[in-house]
Amino acid sequence: MNLQTLIEYMKLHLISLEQDQAEISSRMEPLDPNSKDFNYLDIEYNWITGQITGVSHILKVAEERE
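Given the sequence above, the corresponding structure tokens read:
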């Protein structure tokens, strides 16, 4: 796999993560912030946010080296 292919894959993966994050956010909106379901989704939301941060950083570095 060359660098350009990896960059394109990371871009697609980032879009997928952002879509997952938006879906979780929409599922959280109607819930009581003190509920068990909200707290579970909050953990998932934060987990995906961390992945987005990591992939964004790696993508930025890869694009600078291109």
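Helices lie at 3-28, 36-65. Try to locate this feature in the token string yourself.
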